[in-house]
Amino acid sequence: MNEKIFAPALWSLNPNSNFEDDAVSGQLSFDGKSYLELDIPTGVLLDWPKIPTKDGYMQCHTVEGLHTDCVYGFSQTGEYYILRDVSSPGPSFAAPGFQKQSLSGASIFISRQRVEADPTAESISIKIPGLREWIGTVPFTVTSKLGGNRLTELTFNFDIDEVENVVLYENDELEIYVSFSFLRDGGRTPSYEFSFKSDCKLNFRYKQPSLGFDRAMELHVFPVVDFLAFCMGFRYTISSIEFKTIEGVCAEYLAPLVGLAGVPTNAQLDRIPLSYKRIEKKINEMISRWIGFDEYARNSSALVTSLMNDWKMPLDMLFLASAQAFEAASRSGANEREISDEELQEKLSAIKSSNMNSKLRKWVIYKLRDAKWKSANSLAGDLVGRLGDYATFVVPDVSKYLKDHRAHRDAYTHRRTIKDDQRLSNADLFTHTEATQMLAYGSIALYLGMEPEDLINAVKESRYRWNSIYRANLLYTIASNDDVL
Question: Which of 221, 229, 350, 432 has the fewest CB atoms nearer than 10 Å to its CB?
């Protein structure tokens, strides 16, 4: 999220404090990446418990430090703060003997009126870098007229009545839509300069509010943000979150969130694979499926979207994360059983009644009990089969890809040595890793209801990760008869 400069505030442990006798002064800071830091230069907010004794009291110190659910602040600018999930190593001393304290919080609510620590949300609005380009709507026009070889007229037109919200998803409980916002510079009567910028917000409106803010974020906001990252092909952190409670109080939420800081590059914006206009007719169903993913698809999609970030990871870790995304996708919705329980019992009974050596019999029974489950290699082959033409679009020689993937997945997972004739070079392993990511990406798109041919067209036309696909095509090209001879 964006960093924020906070006004100095008084802080208390009492949610109903009047910020007089029970408050201390502190300065809060947030860099947009790590925890919120509250510095109290003089005084103590969160202290060790005091145990009464006949001589007064004693304090118990622990290595775990101090923790509390919330601390409450009131700023010089008239804003109420709720700093949540707060911890501190404990008070310390500063010359000439005053106590001071530093605390860390995981998130904060900022509002002009008091709110609860987990209020019921009526609506939530967020800003995501790249959302307006993904929507692809420019709500104004600029017209240039030329006379001869020079500009004779420049006209700007913006009709507010023509700008409508774009509904992405709706059911009996919730409506998710994109609204447009605008920023105009130059003053009420612009002179010498004029600029106009449009932006978008993603809005969640609950028709019958019943969810606490945290639960709403977990069930709907974060999953839909991940869905949009999947569609955009890149993942940048949410830049702002605002919400409205059922009491009508408007508040802001800040926390360190997953995603790259800043804004997407022009190259990324030009290569969005699944823009809104491409999936407009099926987006309601796609979001419904995404929210309802089973455990395997949810884990796979989380890895796929997180790998869109520019992580500085060692190659073996990058490969393992990509292979896990692919394996999780292969298990989603799949029949993982090789044989039924009835068939297994028949085989076990036959072995138990056989004349087989007793030690060998025990070994066979032990091995056979796990044989009812399909292997990871078998599931990977099934998934590639379901991907159809999209799989061969990424890796033309699917058999060679699966052979390499099996060897390296087993070796890197179990830390075994790979035979020299099976080992990929670092360059080829990187290409294989990117191909694995693209296959996992295609698998998630398949579960969202897309057809392989539609996904191929989307990737081709947007040129999304074209270099990864080009190199995967070279590595897994199908050998011709001339090459074999």
Answer: 350
Which amino acid, 210?
A: S
Q: How far is CA 48 from the centre of its chain?
A: 37
Q: What is the pLDDT of residues 296-342, one digit of tens each?
A: 999 999 999 999 987 788 999 999 999 999 999 999 987 766 666 67
Backbone angles phi, psi at 194, to 5 degrees: -150, 130
The phi, psi pair for 219, rounded to 5°, reads -80, -35
DSSP code of residue 292: T
Peptide bond into 96 cis (omega under 30): yes
Give the C-alpha separation, 296 to 349, whole Å.
34
Local structure of 13: helix, strand or coil = coil
Instruction: Report whether 300 contacts 282 (CB < 8 A).
Output: no
Structure tokens at 472: 């995967």
Query: Where does residue 56 fall: left (phi above 0), alpha (psi -120 to 50 degrees), or beta otherwise?
Result: left
- How many Å is the Cα radius of gyration of the chain? 29
Question: How far is it, in rounded angstroms, from Cα 240 to Cα 201?
Answer: 10
Structure tokens at 427: 């360059």
Q: Alpha-carbon torsion 254, 259, 260, 266, what sign? A: negative
The DSSP secondary-structure symbol of 465 reads T
Give the three-state DSSP class for 271. Answer: coil
426-447 and 376-387 helices, crossing angle to 10°: 70
d(CA 392, CA 117): 52
As a whole number of angstroms, the distance between CA 35 and CA 307 comes to 23
What per-residue confidence (pLDDT) applies to 58? 65
| CA–CA dist 263, 128 (Å, integer) | 9
Q: What is the rounded CA–CA span in Å between residue 170 and residue 243?
A: 19
Residue type, 328: A
CA dist., res. 438 & res. 469, Å (int): 8
pTM for the model stands at 0.87
Which residue from 269, 32, 288, 246 is spatially nearest to 119, judged by alpha carbons? 246
Tell me what percent of the residues of the chain surpass a pLDDT of 90: 63
Ramachandran angles phi, psi of 384, nearest 5°: -60, -35
CA angle 218, 224, 227 (to 5 degrees): 130
Residue pair 372/341 in contact by the 8 Å Cβ criterion: yes
pLDDT band at 198 (very low <50, low <70, confident <90, very high): confident
CB 400 within 8 A of CB 476: yes
